[in-house]
Amino acid sequence: MKKNLLYKILIVLICLVLLPLQVAMATVLGNLRSGVNADRTRLVLNFDKMPKYSETVADKQLIITFDGKVKRSEKLQLKDNLVKSVILERFNNQSRLVVTFYKSVPKYSIFSLKSPNRFVLDLKKINYDKQVTKIADGLTYTYLREYVDSLPEEVYILEISPNSGYTLKPLLGQENYIQKGVLSQMASNAGAIAAINASYFDSDVWVVGNLMIDKKWVSAEDTPRTALIIDNNDRAQIITNTSYSGKVIRSDGISAPITGLNRMRLANDLIYYNDAYGSSTDTNIYGIEARIVNNRVTEISKTGNLALRPNTVVLSGNGTSAMFLQGLKLGAKVKIQQSFGRTEADYAKHVLGVGPLLVDNGVQSVQTASEEIADDISVGRSPRTAIGIRADGTIVILVVDGRSSSSSGMSLDELARYMIRLKVDRAMNFDGGGSSEMVVNGDVVNAPSDGDERPIRVGLGIFGR
After folding, report:
1. 379 partner at 20 to 30 Å CA-CA among 47, 124, 254, 296?
2. pLDDT at 333 over 70
3. Are residues 134 and 231 in the same domain?
4. Claim to verify: residue 289 and residue 325 sit in the same structural domain
5. What is residue 140's predicted lDDT score, i.e. its pLDDT?
6. Would you state the pLDDT for residue 161?
């Protein structure tokens, strides 16, 4: 009995001796501090031995959980446009470092230093850079690398001075056709000094938006949207509420609505085709087509796929629209009426409808709802392309990269605020994402998010005097 009692007492004494040793062996962290400079924010912790840790990214927070203890909770409030707050705290039987950012979590690295032992967290920044290049009198190119709302952005800007003699003109993917092409080749073919991507487009041969080039009707959109127009004096203007409507009137006075321009013919469609679409209508046999020359019917076909020729129009109907075209006769007179719903657009030299409107009278006015812009365009940050006009007539063209560690892209609201910062009176959005691109003097100056030039259907070129 005495031996057993002595044995138990000995075990208790050994445990009492070892317990503080075990506590002493646990990692102890403390003395949280920071350093902020142009290219990084650094957070440092002292420790007696390197702890095991795990990392978690949650929304705007980076949480590092340590297998160790802190002497006391510590908090830092930095004068930094990247980090909002830093907290070192006890967490269950461990400890954790919680770093909260104003926006998203940036690139970071973790390492240790000795003498004394330190745990280091480096949060990466980009270096501010601005390069301004005078391309020619009245035409300036600017590259900017900066933080916007605590996020890295790479921005490319073209500015055209008023009365400088430069003109804007839409470019088609394959010179005279809306087939796809890459912007650098489109600009080269047309002889443009610079160019950007412009219209939305479908995977089929389909430009989404109103488009007129040199008074030729190229594509149509009946949803009221914003458009860039170039008048007959080569003056640029951004207008709202352009909405296509068209109809064909037979010689007997019966009419039918035009449902689309230069796009795939669907059920009951009446499509207006011209040579901007390609070499033929590419339609099937389930319809009727009529060639119109100088407002008269010169050919009627029930086999589809009529050839498209300069200075002629082909009306292609399916279903109810085919029944309407059956009433046409060779040599009969046909009247075609078309409008973009705005007199300025109907009489313009060029019309380029995209949208939404971003800025109106120098005030943010993003019209995604009224212009029925899809969520994949209107929601979130992406590479963006935009154009704005200042009160004095200066044209401001912008591309911002996105989907990369060096450039976050912008939401439409952020894009609108940036255009206001550039002092535009009115601005509108163009197609973005992997299509966003700027070409200057034959070179692609931005970094398209696909990694290479995306083939597009419509661009906007800048031409010399």
Report:
1. 124
2. yes
3. yes
4. yes
5. 98
6. 98
